[in-house]
Amino acid sequence: MKKKILITVKTYPTISTKYSELVCTAGLTEDGEWIRIYPIPFRKLDFDRQYKKYQWIIADIEENASDPRPESYKVLNWENIELGDRIDSENGTWTTRKDLVLNNVYTNRDALIADAKDSSKLMSLAVFKPTKLLGMTISKVDREWDPKKLAQFDQTDLFETGPFKIVSKLPYKFKYVFEDDVGHVSRLMIEDWEVGALFWRQLKKYDGNEEKACADVKKKYWNDFALTKDLHFYLGTTQARHFRSRNPFLIIGTFHPKPVDPSLFD
């Protein structure tokens, strides 16, 4: 079936022994229903098929029979994705985007998790509004992909001499720390495309100085998004975490318009 989808989320690429490098994409239909389209080898798509955030696409999709989460679909032909109009930020107000995105916003962690675990729902994509932002943490993680997975790829994927080079693994983990509407504290990892792109861009700017690159990530995601914007989170689960983890959600994107009342951030 063909569906028109407003892209709201692109995660940082991961690697897979079956599909090589993959990006998880999520968005909303015209009826406001969440859809996850996975797997998509986004960076292998022709340039004129590489959709942007807040751009409408039309794709031929089918339910992902291997994934019990009801929002999960597969694109039948990646090269046939049609790109539509993109909704701009409207000078930072995001008015049209708000009308499409903020129709069902969670503010309570337990209610969110309950819906995710409810066998009749298995809800795995949501918008969450933190009641209080407490901080942002940055910690080191493994710098390289799992060598067992890399060993199974076509070697032309691994070296710059080939037609495609697998994306570098982020050597840092970025997390938001926040409270919900009853004061429950959560620490969730940020997995969106932009946080990785920003880190690598600033690392290049500072000639490999990782401390400065991390400082710029924090400047954007904390000093700007957290302290001056009306910050919401796009949350999502992975198939493995959904059934194993007490809180299976990760931050897969941010929604950060200007506040309606700027004085609240003074």
Please characterize this protein's 3D structure.
The protein has helices at residues 95-101, 109-117, 147-150, 193-205, 210-228, 239-244; strands spanning 2-10, 14-16, 20-29, 34-40, 55-63, 72-75, 82-86, 105-106, 125-128, 132-140, 172-179, 185-189, 232-237, 249-255. With 266 residues, it is of the alpha+beta class. The protein folds into two domains: 2-86, OB fold (Dihydrolipoamide Acetyltransferase, E2P), CATH 2.40.50.730; 95-265. The strands form three sheets. It has a five-stranded mixed barrel. Helix 4 (193-205) packs across helix 5 (210-228). The longest helix is centred in the last third of the chain and has 19 residues, at 210-228. The radius of gyration is 19 Å and the shape is globular. The model is unreliable at 155-162 (pLDDT under 50).
Spatial strand order of the main sheet? 1-3-4-6-5
Task: Compute the average pLDDT.
Answer: 90
Structural class estimated from helices and strands: alpha+beta
User: From the alpha-carbon coordinates, what is the Rg to the nearest angstrom?
Assistant: 19 Å
Helical amount = 10-25%
How many strands in all? 14
Compute the number of structural domains.
2
Q: Secondary-structure blueprint of this entry?
A:
Blueprint: E1 2-10, E2 14-16, E3 20-29, E4 34-40, E5 55-63, E6 72-75, E7 82-86, H1 95-101, E8 105-106, H2 109-117, E9 125-128, E10 132-140, H3 147-150, E11 172-179, E12 185-189, H4 193-205, H5 210-228, E13 232-237, H6 239-244, E14 249-255
Helix pairs in contact: 4-5
